[in-house]
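A quick aside before the break. I want you to see a complete sequence-to-structure record at least once, exactly as it would be stored in a machine-readable document. Don't worry about memorizing anything.
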Amino acid sequence: MDAVPARTRGYVAAVALLAAPCLSRPPDTPGSWLAPALLAALYAACEHAVHRRFGGTFYPVLLAGAFLLPPSAAALVPVPAALLCPVDPRPALPRRVWRAARPALAVWAAARVHEALGGRDAVAGADFPYVLLPAGAAVLAFCLVLTALDGGLRAAAGLVPPCRTWRALLARSLAPVAVHGLAGLMMAVLWRSPYGPVSALLVLLPMCVSWWVFAQYHRERAAHQATIRALVQAVDIKDGYTRGHSERVGQASVLIARELGLDDDRVEVLRFAGILHDVGKLGVPTRLLRKDGPLTPEERRIIELHPEYGHEMVRGISFLGEARTAILHHHERLDGTGYPYGLAGDRIPECARIVAVADAFDAMTSTRCYSRARPVEAAVAELERCAGAHFDPRMVRALVRALRREGWRPAVTADEPAYGTAPAERAPRTGAHR
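That is the input. The structure line, written in tokens, reads:
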């Protein structure tokens, strides 16, 4: 228990006390125990297999219980899985309590809503399409309870503000839970059909296939993230003064992209572009990246090769898509005075114009070896002054709107100069940072 914070333990205990009344009315006849016992055993087996092989939780059996059983009996279905399945990391007790109480409350709420809307009779009679209405309401109740409990746990742990957590969790979990609910409804209808409970197991086969596909997608995504993380860490090690800069440029690029209303896939690509925009610095001599004084024209020409180096490095990484173009062109300027090719206006790809604004903004609000951090307001004023010449005004306006709504927490990306060290002789203008 020592590894779990006191506030979190208190929250788990409160949820367990809340779930206890839901389990207080077990089935009262020997025959009425059969369906809950079968569903509980099936859920325990599925949960063990899915959690061990793919991660995550398998909800169709729980929701089938909500559609088939009284609320108190449905709430018993997840309990054996919580007691029998292995728990890691330790301590095991609070985690087992949480894994029992959380789904018990959610499935109890779903069963109550389903029963109140006459869903059990509709399932028994396979009354389509009426059966869909109570089932949909039950799935929504199930998802809302899970979201509320998970958000409360994160808030108790002090990870993120509750409101933001609940919105994010609901948006992320509603669609998957709805799919699981549809599979659970199919299981319940087949369970009540003349073919009996064995036929309901057939629903699990396509669900297992979908879980496998989902797991493969997440493994591939994790490999992508590991690739990007390795490249960023290499840049951070080489150019310690800009440590953390790449991640913040990715975040600022996402703010701009969302403000422009780009779809989620493009937003993700722009996050990659922001994170990797300086990967070409791996090809630049370290002494130039860390030089305190002004650069000579020759040194500047060498540093200005880093977009081309970066583009060459990521050329073969297919999942980056247009992020490769942003890496190549993020130092172009709207008036054609940028590098490496001197593109102007709309000839500069949109993704590169977004990353250029994000890059300049974070460079101005971060302390480096050659300049002190500016306040956010001063950085915004400089971006607005240079809009139309260096930067796309539309991208600048999008960033300003996003900052007003969500704010920004600039971080110092390098140690402060030692006491008595003279400041750098030059402070770069926007877009001219290294």
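Two observations worth writing down. The first helix runs from residue 6 to 19. The radius of gyration is 28 Å. We'll return to this after the break.
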